[in-house]
């Protein structure tokens, strides 16, 4: 019995040592900053549902940018973002525009589904029409967003040398096929800068066409993490976790073998990027303030999801200065 107990203790100790980040120093690299929808207007997450029109509950504006526009992407990169996330929708004329909602009523002066309109019709809309911070008493961006809905081609041409995360908002595999048609025409060097995530079916369709592109869907994330929980204690990285982008909610991250440093290092060895998102990962919560930033593990070198890169990029720089 004593021998068995001793063996058990040794095995448990070995597993601990093999997975403890306390015994693995951080890489020294600063966190990578991912700007969600560029630099846009933010809103409280309390009480939010899938049907909430977030444009109707924004905080009082602190900057002039609207999400998913060329200007907002440019502002995010200028503020310090390493990667910018954009949302795409398929149009009636079989093109891709950069816009979050399936329906037009929340943000714009249009009505109906995005996919029932042509690019020309969509670019005639005012995408700032519905934003209000005071329950509809004033609309600070009304009239300011006419013509600001870009096509994906415009965004990829304007930011050909920058990293982008493309979110396929639907569950339609056709959208994955259309995105693959376009991305397949890009130079290999630009394709390496792109990551695609979104619905299971469209992401699977794109990945089948372009297996070299880093991807993520809910199904892929669940498959990777379930297998990693089963075998990660050995130091192995399952095939399901390779060439992926993993969006890890901070609520669950501590339960992963080797979190944070060993986990990030293991994933990086297999071309997988780790992005830490705030809360439980339900509604794109980000690390958007000083208080949020203080919750990031010391020495963490993976990616960080933010809706206010303009506020947290200086905090990253302060942390690097202090470390030096």
UniProtKB/TrEMBL annotation:
GO biological process terms, semicolon-separated: lipid metabolic process
InterPro entries in alphabetical order: GP_PDE_dom, PLC-like_Pdiesterase_TIM-brl
Domain GP-PDE: 31-316
Pfam families xrefs: GDPD
Protein name listed in UniProt: Glycerophosphodiester phosphodiesterase
Family matches, as SUPFAM superfamilies: PLC-like phosphodiesterases
Gene3D superfamilies the UniProt entry points to: Phosphatidylinositol (PI) phosphodiesterase
GO molecular function: phosphoric diester hydrolase activity
């Amino acid at each position: 019995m004593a021998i068995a107990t001793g063996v058990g203790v040794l095995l448990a100790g070995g597993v601990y040592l093999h997975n403890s980040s306390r015994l693995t120093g951080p890489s020294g690299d600063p966190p990578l900053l991912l700007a969600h929808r560029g630099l846009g207007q933010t809103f409280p997450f309390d009480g939010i549902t899938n049907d909430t029109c977030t444009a109707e509950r924004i905080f009082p504006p602190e900057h002039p940018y609207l999400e998913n526009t060329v200007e907002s992407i440019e502002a995010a990169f200028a503020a310090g973002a390493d990667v910018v996330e954009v949302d795409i929708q398929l149009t009636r004329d079989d093109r891709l525009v950069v816009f979050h909602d399936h329906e037009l009523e929340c943000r714009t002066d249009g009505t109906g589904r995005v996919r029932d309109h042509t690019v020309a019709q969509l670019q005639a809309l005012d995408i700032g029409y519905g934003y209000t911070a005071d329950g509809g008493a004033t609309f600070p961006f009304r009239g300011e967003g006419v013509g600001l809905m870009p096509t994906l081609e415009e965004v990829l041409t304007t930011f050909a040398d920058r990293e982008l995360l493309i979110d396929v908002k639907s569950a339609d595999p056709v959208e994955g096929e259309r995105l693959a048609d376009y991305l397949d025409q890009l130079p290999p060097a630009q394709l390496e800068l792109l990551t695609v995530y979104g619905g299971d079916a469209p992401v699977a369709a794109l990945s089948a066409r372009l297996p070299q592109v880093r991807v993520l869907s809910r199904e892929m994330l669940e498959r990777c993490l379930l297998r990693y929980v089963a075998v990660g204690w050995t130091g192995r990285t399952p095939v399901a976790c390779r060439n992926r982008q993993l969006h890890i909610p901070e609520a669950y991250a501590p339960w992963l073998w080797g979190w944070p440093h060993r986990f990030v290092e293991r994933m990086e060895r297999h071309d997988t990027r780790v992005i830490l998102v705030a809360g439980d990962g339900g509604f794109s919560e980000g690390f958007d303030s000083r208080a949020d930033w203080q919750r990031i593990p010391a020495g963490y070198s993976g990616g960080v999801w933010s809706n206010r890169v303009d506020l947290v990029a200086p905090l990253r720089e302060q942390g690097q200065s202090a470390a030096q």
